[in-house]
Every structure is written in C-alpha cells, then in structure tokens.
Write a structure and sequence with these properties.
Helix content is about 50%, strand content about 0%. With about 150 residues, the protein is an all-alpha fold. It has one domain. Helix 3 packs antiparallel against helix 5. It is elongated. The N terminus is likely disordered.
Length: about 150
C-alpha cells in the first residue's frame, strides 16, 4: 500500500472508528465548515471530515477533496451510518477524531475501505508513480558550488 493511500486510509479508519466521548460541539458552533440548509447530514459530515483529512495529510489530498467528500457521503448514506457516527465525525477536529472510535460497523468500515481502494487508490498510485519517476516529490539537489577561483588558496 503506498504512503498517501496509507495515510488516507489510516485517517479515515481512525476517524470512522472513533467513539464520541465527552461533549460534542453543536453544528452551530462549528465554524470550520460552511454548510447550506439543503445538505444532508452525511454530506455535511463528509465535507467537514474531508477538510480534516486534507489538513492531516498536509494538503496532499487537496486535489482529491471532491472525490473524498463524495466517497464519504455515499458510504454514509448507502450504508446508513448511525446518527451518532455522523454527528461525531461531522464535528470533531484533528486528533479529537479518535474520540469517534467504534461508531461504524465492520461491514460499514469494509465498504468504505473497498470504495476508497476502488476510486481513490488508483489516483494515489498514479500520483506516487509520477513522483517516483521524477525522483520523488522533493526538489532536485542544488548544483555543486562553482570552482574556487583561488584554487583553494587565499
């Protein structure tokens, strides 16, 4: 499994498994996500969670933001995630997502993993393949210093 896919899956699974402990923020108090009244609870949760995943990936998932949001919303709606899971995943931030552990059933988690592998996995593989062919994602090393005009002397 490549590094970016692993990061995404780890973040999704960590978030999806999380147990809403303590007092959850009310959606009205959540200022990190702009939502419209016509969005479903699953779409609202997916939009928020995608933002958290993009941040956790240091922006690596930014170009796939819409796809990640669609995958999360689709799985949530099609697999009928519990209100408790949707509320937890839709309000927690950063490391607090771990507090949502255990909210998805094993079947829901497997469906999410399969959907991610099917739709996002090839894109992440292509991204890493392209970066690998170009020598990785870091810039090339600087050129060597120019010859010393003094020939090593002062």
């Amino acid at each position: 499994m490549n590094q970016l896919r692993g990061l995404f899956l780890a973040a999704v699974v960590a978030a999806a498994l999380a147990a809403c402990g303590g007092a959850a923020k009310s959606p009205a108090a959540d200022t990190t996500t702009t939502m419209t009244a016509s969005e479903s609870p699953c779409t609202k949760m997916a939009t928020h969670l995608t933002g958290e995943l993009v941040t956790a990936s240091s922006g690596a998932l930014e170009r796939h933001r819409d796809l990640v949001t669609r995958i999360l919303a689709t799985r949530c709606e099609d697999d009928q995630w519990s209100d408790e899971a949707v509320a937890c995943l839709g309000t927690q931030t950063g490391t607090m997502l771990e507090t949502c552990e255990g909210k998805l059933t094993a079947e829901q988690e497997q469906a999410l993993d399969a959907h991610v592998d099917r739709e996002l996995g090839p894109l992440l593989d292509d991204t890493e393949d392209a970066e690998g062919a170009m020598g990785g994602s870091s810039p090339p090393p600087p050129p060597p210093p120019p010859d010393d005009p003094c020939g090593g002397g002062a």
